[in-house]
Every structure is written in structure tokens, then in C-alpha cells.
Amino acid sequence: MTEISLQRQVHVLYSDHHGWLYGWLRKRLGSAENAAELSHDTFVRILSKQTALDSLREPRAYLSTIAHGLMVNHWRRQEIEQAYLAALAAQPEPLTPSPEERQLALEALQEIDRILNGLPSRVRDIFLLSQFDGLTYPQIAERFGITVNVVQKAMVRALKHCLAVQA
Amino acid sequence: MSADLSSSAPDSSAISPAALDQAVTWFVRLASGQAGAGDHDALAQWRQADPEHERAWQRVQGVEHKLRGGIERVQAPVARAALSGAAASSGRRRALKTLAVAGAVGTAALWTRQQGLWTQWTADYSSGVGERRSVVLADGTQVLLNTDTALDVHFDAGQRRLSLRSGEVRVVTAADPAGRPFLVSTRDGSLRPIGTRFTVRRLDGDSTTRLSVSEGAVEVRCADGGPPVLVQAGQQTRFSGTAIQAPAPLDDAATSWTDGVLTAERMRLDDFLAELSRYRPGRLRCDPAVAGLRLTGAYPLNDTDRILAALQQTLPVQVHRYTRYWVTVSAR
């Protein structure tokens, strides 16, 4: 399918259902601005998917499925941002990155979070302590009161998870 | 963004699961913090034993690069704490935090970027970063689009309406034989010009619209209603969805872009660079140590690299180019 015809199809989808989608999102997000942003992003996502839309039977079900995924991402982003700001504030030497640095940092954190998403939190923490803090397996084992063998197994699991996400 | 990732990952279909398992085992062994030279030699031998081994190893390394590459800009302990903290909080009830936004940075800026792309694709008229574009509408009205602008035009039997989705335009209205009213709207409100020449700029950063009137007069209404305010020739104002500032004398610098010039009069360097960055793709950073330096001058917008070079001549600053898209101005 050509890019032009896809854009035209998305345009039709947009004119017919944008108002409905905006209302759907606004009810769930409670914010007009966020709803406007997420509904725009839903259509951007559809454009980037490059799939034919003319045979769509339930366009609103399709739109709300994509919008729901974006809404979850949106909440997740906010959680990461809060955790990041809390982590900055908790540093012994207070760090004050510039807005640009903060934005880049958040983008990076979101991407890593996305890759690690779905791992149990213990496995995730073990993997992060090893890869980011450079702790040895015995150090990690001691911190959690577990054996080095368990740490190794967690590392294998985390790495396989990352490979599966990347595949 | 799983689509992005899968398209950038190397073709993995052919790597045997067994080789991949072994590569994972190697990686985990070497990451223990207790691996010695012997382990590294053994790994090297394994990688050389079979091209499949090497490919599997490269894939595992790819994960590590992805993580480390992403984390270069975040201090590792902060990153780890943030990611662990976020994981811990994700189990809590979503409903409680839908409206919680910790800072003005980040989320909003990210959205703005993607939204900009969308806006440009679907607008009736748009201009790229650094581009200025002139359009004559069906009724003879002349519109000049400044950099990175998206504009929709709706003309029908009852009205002539422009909606400025993002960016900035200069409008010189034409008289309409049919006498249809002319209206310009932004997210923040609407403008009704009365035989006039004016510029409108939508400022995404603080969600306001700036209006500068050169000729005639323009009536401003907020999106949320309230009484209109009349802005006369030689005046400017700024309005949000809920409030309109009292009109102030027109700052010529605000409209000099229509002549292809960026004008500064005792302007702070950080403000100047923020303005300049509208006309360039990529990021333009100002070191806080020099942010308060002042400059005066008129700079042709057709070559922003030259403007940056000129700054080094007139101010005690240095321009660092990490890439074409990443420039920082700091003390010399």
C-alpha cells in the first residue's frame, strides 16, 4: 500500500472518529490536554503501523485498543518521571540536570523500563544492580539474603527476557 | 514503541536457540564480577569455534549496548533507583495517579515532539524547521508561515477561518466581496481582525498565544469565553485559554522574522538561543554560566550556523558542536 493512500485512510478515520476518541480518553484521563495529546498520538501510531485500514470492521474498537495501550504508557511514563525525580533528590550530592538532560534521561529510562517490563521486581532489581551499579554476584546475594546461584538464575532470566523483547 | 525496536534490531531468525542459550550463560558468567583472564580466553575460544556462536554473542552484546547506550546520560545509581522505584510503584492503583505530574519537563516535551509531526502531516499548510513560506488564500488574504508551522484553512459560505495549530503566521487580510467574517483561532482562543496586518504565534511551552498588531485592530477572545479585548495597531498581547494580558506597546523584534531577520535588543543570551533554536533542527543548549549575557543586533535567519559563529566574535562564549543537531554555547 502506498503511503499516500494510507494517509488518506487515516484521514478518513480521523474525521469520522477523532471526536469520539477524544471523549473516550477525556473520560478516562480526566484532562482535556492529555486527552488531546493521546488521541493525536493514537493516529500517529496507526500511521506508523502501516497496515491497511479500509477493511476495518470496528474502527472504534481498534482505536480504543491502541489508545488504551498509549494510556498505560502515559501512566508508566509519569511513574518513571516521579521515580527519577525522587532518585535525583535522594542523591547525597544534589543533582540538578538541565531540562534537556532531564528529558534525555527520561527517554532513556523509559526505553529501558519498556525492555524490562514484565520481569518480577526482584529479578529486575538484581539485573539493574549488576548492570548499572556494577555489583558482583556475591554482593547482590548478600544484599538480598539469597545465594549466588539464585542471583545467576535471575541474571539468565532477565537477559533472556531482554533478548525476547528485542527479537 | 515496540515497532521502532524490532525494526532496528538485527535479523535474529536464524540464530539457533542453543547458541543463544550458551551466549547468555557466558554473559552471566562474565558479569559476575569474579571472572578472570581464563574466563575471557575461554569465551574468545567459544566465539571463534562457530560463526553461529559469534552471532549469538553479538546479539547478547546488543542488549547490553542498548541498556548502556541509553543510560549514558543518567548517572547509573540514579537510573537504577529510578527504575527500581518505578517498578515498585507500578502495582499501586492507577486511578490515584492519573493526574499527578511531578515536573513541567519530560512528558509534555516528549508529547509535543510527536504531536508536531502529526500536526504537520495533516495540516492544510505547513512549513519545516527553518523554512518560511508565503501563501495567498482564495480571498486574496496573504499568509506568511514562519518556521515549523501548521495552519488549517476553512472557507465556506458563512465565514473565513484559519486555525493555527502550531508555530507562527503573519496575516494581511483582504476585504471580502461577500462580506464574510474573518477569524483566526488557536487552542487558546480566537481573533477577529478588522482590516489589518498582524502576527500570531502559538507558544507551546507555556500554552499561550502571542498577538502583535501592525495595522488595523484585532479583537481577542479566550477559548473559555469572557469579554473580548481589542488590540490596536502598534500593540501586542498574550493570551491563554482563560485570560488575556492587557495590550502593551508592540515590540518590533517580535515581527522582524517577517523580514527574515532575528532582532535582539539587550536580549539575554538564553532567550536569544531559545528563539534561534526554533529555526534549527536539533538541540541548542545554553550554559547557565553565560545565560545572562546580553546581546544586541539583527541576524539574518537564512544561515543559523553563521549566527552561532558570530556569537563567538561578539561575546565571551564558545560554541561546542557535538553533532550538527547537538550544540552547546558555554563560557570561553
Question: Would you mind describing this structure in some detail?
Answer:
- The complex is a heterodimer of chains A (167) and B (332).
- Chain A has helices at residues 3-29, 32-49, 59-89, 99-116, 121-131, 137-144, 148-166.
- By secondary structure, chain A is mainly alpha-helical.
- Chain A has 2 domains: 1-99, no CATH class; 118-167, Orthogonal Bundle (Arc Repressor Mutant, subunit A).
- In chain A, helix 2 (32-49) packs across helix 3 (59-89) and helix 3 packs across helix 4.
- The radius of gyration of chain A is 21 Å and the shape is elongated.
- In chain B, the strands form 3 sheets. In chain B, strands 1, 2, 3, 4, 5, 6, 7, 8, 9, 10 and 11 form an 11-stranded mixed β-sheet that branches. In chain B, strands 13-16-15 form a 3-stranded mixed β-sheet.
- Chain B is 32% helix and 34% strand.
- In chain B, strand 6 and strand 7 (189-203) form a beta hairpin.
- Chain B has helices at 2-8, 17-30, 37-49, 51-71, 76-89, 107-122, 269-277, 304-314; strands at residues 125-127, 133-136, 142-145, 149-155, 160-172, 182-186, 189-203, 208-222, 225-232, 235-239, 248-249, 261-268, 283-286, 294-300, 317-323, 326-331.
- Chain B has 3 domains: 13-86, no CATH class; 124-252, Jelly Rolls; 260-331, Phage tail protein beta-alpha-beta fold, CATH 3.55.50.
- With 332 residues, chain B is of the alpha+beta class.
- The chains are: A mainly alpha (167), B alpha+beta (332).
- Chains A and B meet through helix 1, helix 2, helix 3, helix 4 and helix 5 of A and helix 1, helix 2, helix 4, helix 5 and helix 6 of B.
